[in-house]
Amino acid sequence: MKRILLFTIVSSLVFALWSCGDNTPPKETTTPKTEVTAKAETTPNPDLGKKIYKQYCALCHGADGKLGVNGAGDLTASALPETEVITRIQKGKGLMTPFEEILSETQIKAVADYVIAMRGE
After folding, report:
1. Exposure string for 72-94, b = 16+ CB within 10 A, e = fewer
2. What structural domains does the chain harbor?
3. pTM for the structure as a whole
4. Which of 38, 84, 91, 111 is the most interior residue, by most CB within 10 Å?
5. pLDDT digits 0-9 by tens, 51-99
6. Residues 15, 99, 107, 46: what is their CA dihedral angle, to the nearest 10 degrees?
7. Residue 87's closest CA among 98, 78, 101?
8. Residues 40, 61: Cα–Cα separation, whole Å
9. Helix crossing, 82-91 with 105-118: angle to 10°?
10. Cβ-based neighbour number of residue 108 at 10 Å
């Protein structure tokens, strides 16, 4: 019984570490840069934040932001202002991966907007 429990814990840990290891950012659709597309980059696609969140964040924070694996905070209860949410995504905290070298500023902003929307404000 102890071996089964130990095996389950070790396999879960290995899976969690393995699944967090993918540093390939989701692909954004690109179009030739014009004045219109430059403005569109500052207003990210609302689905982009959700897609990135599901890929990188949901494992620890959960689909609803409340999971709390590995010390992850409840995102629905967070009161951090947008600038601090962006900084947290960029720099990470505790076991959280810093995403400043993985995601673009537009992608980080999209995730921050999605996380803030989880609060139901």
Report:
1. bbebeebebeeeebbbbbbeeee
2. 33-118 (1.10.760.10)
3. 0.66
4. 111
5. 999 999 999 999 999 999 999 999 999 999 999 999 999 999 999 999 9
6. 50
7. 98
8. 29
9. 120
10. 22
